[in-house]
Every structure is written in structure tokens, then in C-alpha cells.
Specification:
It is a single chain. This protein is mostly helical and 84 residues long. It folds into 2 domains: 42 residues, no CATH class; 40 residues, no CATH class. It has 4 helices and no strands. The protein starts with a helix and ends with a helix.
Length: 84
């Protein structure tokens, strides 16, 4: 809802249409996705899931730097899974 409101307001006024200033259509789609993701990240219903994902990534990164021999196949799988 919030992102659709944002795009309605921005797209109807050329002076504020920052999406069109992103350049080619691929860049515009990326920018739109970035805006939607940023707005959705403020949704408290998703907050805990996003924080948990961040903690797992940071933990895996620290573990890989400190003790690379202890990285398990499960850690590698989770790392790949989160990149999708």
C-alpha cells in the first residue's frame, strides 16, 4: 500500500518523477524494486525475519574469517540460499 501510494504521487508529477531519472528501463525496474524493498523493510511484521537473516549472515562471515575449517556444508548451503 505504501509503495503504491509513493509511486502514484511521484509518477503523476514530472517534477518529482525520480524514477524516470534512473535512466534505462532496467535501471528504473531496479530502482522501483529498491524503493519497494526499503518500504517493506519498515514493516514490523517482516522486521524480525530480516534481522534474523542479517544476524545469520554476519555470524557466518565472522565464523568463516576466524575458523574457516569449521564451516559446514549447512553453512555454505544457507549462504547460497540467502543470496537468492
Amino acid at each position: 500500500m505504501h509503495s503504491s501510494m509513493f509511486f502514484r504521487m511521484v509518477l503523476k508529477n514530472p517534477e518529482f518523477n525520480i524514477v524516470s531519472k534512473a535512466g534505462d528501463p532496467t535501471a528504473q525496474q531496479y530502482f522501483k524494486r529498491l524503493i519497494v524493498t526499503s518500504i517493506m523493510a519498515t514493516d514490523m511484521g517482516r522486521h524480525n525475519r530480516l534481522v534474523g537473516k542479517l544476524k545469520r549472515r554476519v555470524g557466518s562471515s565472522i565464523k568463516a574469517r576466524e575458523k574457516p575449517e569449521e564451516i559446514t556444508d549447512f553453512d555454505k548451503f544457507n549462504s547460497l540460499k540467502e543470496k537468492e
